[in-house]
Design brief:
The complex is a heterodimer of chains A (247) and B (321). Chain A starts with a strand and ends with a helix. Helices cover 28% and strands 31% of the residues of chain A. By secondary structure, chain A is an alpha/beta fold. Chain A contains six helices and 15 strands. Chain A has one domain: Rossmann fold (3-Layer(aba) Sandwich). By secondary structure, chain B is α/β, with parallel strands linked by helices. Chain B folds into two domains: 171 residues, HUPs (Rossmann fold), CATH 3.40.50.620; 123 residues, Rossmann fold (3-Layer(aba) Sandwich). The chains are: A alpha/beta (247), B alpha/beta (321). The interface between A and B is large, with 82 and 103 residues. The structure holds flavin-adenine dinucleotide. Flavin-adenine dinucleotide (FAD) binds next to helix 5, helix 6, strand 16 and helix 7 of chain B.
């Protein structure tokens, strides 16, 4: 079984969100970069667990980014995975990135493609679906559980107010979220081993983006908190009812 | 030309998120001087003609029961066919669980630009620019769509449901439906409860509650307010509450009208999932808790004393004993 795990580099969850160049660019000064948590904690760790259960499984990681993403890829390789492929291109839009990943997936002949449910910076939730369409493969989104028995997969996916269990055969594309696996910390052996794992750099295929970001905005600041006496919950209810019209 | 809205259903019922999508799509159609039409897949119990009151003039219904469960691959092909037949120039989804599965596929299939997580109507002044949520609620991006056909996935609770008069013309759409490759074997749903992502009011609690045995008062408050339940990450990680209640950067992102946070410190990763809530109430015994900075109303006090009083006061307002 060959598994491809999509990895994205995102700002750390505590990063200050600010913009430069007349609000057209994310201000990266002082920003720490991490593996997108959904890619790392759920997609990658679940893939590693599948490999632990089936020694013949092979895990490849793919990212679409410049060389500045290499430390992130090495960190992902330290957690697990056999080799990584970096498509040497800046991020344009989801379709551009998905097209690059689909190209890698086609060439590599994977049985399973895992993505995180979304990135914590663009919040697109689009890559998995686009890759699946470009490969004409079935797609299970927002998966919370993934089991495999032979070539039949049993997957739980989020629905409003619950979960749906479904079955599908490989090959398949799955977007992963909480429930799939538990976060892991790379160990020393993993970190040392990651240095020598292959990281292949390939050039992008020519694709036109379908969208572009014209600019960014920050939300308006909150007016400030109104404190209510803990002994007077009637007052809170009155404010919520009459002032905020929320109940 | 038309604006085509995907009307999402569950168990044969139209979802609330789709009422928002229809209201939004109708407004987009008005902006562009065209009409809003809908597409419904699978068998339904709703009176589809009555959906006209949300502004859709015509509904294309593909009433095959093989479409009663989502298979994004199959759905995408059918919706693409309807979009072609109606010469849709804008296709609107809710950015809910199903929209997230279908809209990206459709975008790749039609090579049409997608804005997922839209929070406002498009600006059609010059080009076609849609505001979307980015950086997990900490900023917005204005995304320009450059393709002829545009796809928008509207965030739940970002646009109001607008009702008017009128009935929609319902037409059977005869699409070629291929057998799906995904077989749904089981649906597990907490019956009678309000789904978290659709809820108007969410009552959420954190580690300040000390243990799962103390959730009774939280559930009471939620029930009284007809609210959905949520929790912070450590609470879900410790299995005090199920994973599907975990909100935040790595859980579910929500935008209810009212978010009530009890015994939650307000870490930046928690705020990332709830900061789009319209009104935030924070109950915390620590006046320095960071959550107060993001709150509209704050109560500095012990949750174990405050919450039962709060519930009683709501009951009084609602006239229930
Ligand atoms: C990459 C990353 C992603 C993360 N993603 C998420 C996420 O998605 N969601 C999330 O929630 N967290 C997330 N976290 C964790 C986050 O940083 C916080 O640790 C977490 O939100 C804290 O949960 P809490 O507020 O319930 O607990 P605590 O921080 O322990 O806060 C408990 C609060 O309860 C108050 N309290 C105690 N007793 C009482 C009482 N009797 N009455 C009233 N108040 C009381 C305390 O004053 C305190 O403010 C993430 C962290 C990282 C690093």
């Amino acid at each position: 079984m060959k598994i491809l795990v999509c990895i994205s580099k995102t700002p750390d969850t505590t990063a200050k969100i600010a913009f430069t160049d007349n609000n057209t660019k994310f201000d990266t000064s002082g920003v720490q970069w991490i593996i997108n948590p959904y890619d790392e904690w759920y997609a990658l760790v679940r893939a590693i667990e599948l490999k632990e259960a089936n020694a013949s499984a092979v895990i490849h990681l793919v990212t679409v980014a410049g060389a500045d993403a290499d430390p992130i890829i090495r960190k992902a390789l330290a957690l697990g995975g056999d080799e990584a492929i970096r498509v040497n291109a800046g991020s344009q839009d989801s379709f551009y990135i998905a097209s690059q990943i689909a190209e890698v997936a086609k060439t590599g002949g994977y049985d399973l493609v895992f993505t995180g449910k979304e990135t914590i910076d663009y919040n697109g939730s689009s890559i998995g679906g686009m890759v699946a369409e470009l490969l004409d493969l079935p797609y299970v989104s927002l998966a919370t559980k993934f089991e495999i028995n032979g070539s039949t997969c049993t997957i739980n996916r989020e629905i409003e107010g619950g979960e749906e269990t479904c079955e599908a055969a490989l090959p398949l594309v799955v977007s992963c979220q909480k429930g799939m696996a538990e976060q892991r910390i790379p160990n020393m052996k993993g970190i040392m081993g990651a240095r020598t794992k292959p990281l292949k750099v390939v050039e992008p295929v020519a694709v036109d983006a379908l969208t572009s970001v014209a600019g960014f905005e920050l939300p308006p600041a909150k007016a400030g908190v109104k404190l209510v006496d803990p002994e007077n919950m009637e007052e809170l209810v009155r404010l919520l009812h009459e002032e905020a019209k929320a109940i | 030309m038309s604006v085509l809205i995907f009307i999402d259903t569950a168990d044969g019922h139209v979802k609330k998120a789709s009422l928002e999508a229809m209201s939004y799509g109708a407004k987009v159609a008005e902006q562009l001087g065209t009409v809003a039409e809908g597409v419904v897949l699978g068998t339904v119990t709703n009176d589809l003609a009555a959906l006209g009151k949300y502004g859709v003039k015509k509904i294309h219904h593909v009433a095959k029961d093989t479409l009663n469960h989502l298979d994004a691959q199959v759905y995408t092909k059918v919706i693409a066919e309807v979009a072609r037949a109606t010469s849709a120039t804008v296709i609107v989804f809710s950015n809910n669980v199903d929209g997230k599965a279908i809209a990206p596929r459709l975008s790749a299939r039609l090579k049409s630009g997608l804005v997922s997580g839209a929070v406002a109507l498009p600006d059609t002044g010059k080009g076609f620019v849609v505001k979307k949520n980015v950086f997990s609620g900490k900023a917005f991006a204005n995304v320009s769509v450059t393709t002829d056909v545009k796809i928008i996935a509207l965030n739940p609770n970002a646009y109001p449901i607008i009702t008017g008069d009128g009935a929609a013309e319902v037409v059977a759409f005869n699409a070629a439906v291929e057998p799906g490759k995904i077989k749904v074997t089981q649906v597990t749903k907490a019956s009678g409860e309000v789904p978290l992502t659709e809820a108007e009011i969410v009552v959420s609690a954190g580690r300040g509650l000390k243990g799962p045995e103390n959730w009774g008062m939280v559930e009471d408050l939620a029930k009284t307010l007809h609210a959905a339940l949520a929790c912070s990450r450590p609470v879900a990680d410790a299995h005090w509450r199920p994973h599907n209640e975990h909100v935040g950067q790595t859980g579910i992102a929500i935008a209810p009208n009212l978010y009530i946070a009890i015994g939650i410190s307000g870490a930046i990763q928690h705020l990332a999932g709830v900061n789009r809530s319209k009104v935030i109430v924070v109950i915390n015994k620590d006046p320095e808790a960071p959550f107060f900075k993001a709150a509209d109303y704050g109560i500095v006090g012990d949750a174990f004393e405050v919450v039962p009083k709060f519930t009683a006061a709501v009951k009084k307002l609602k006239g229930v004993a």
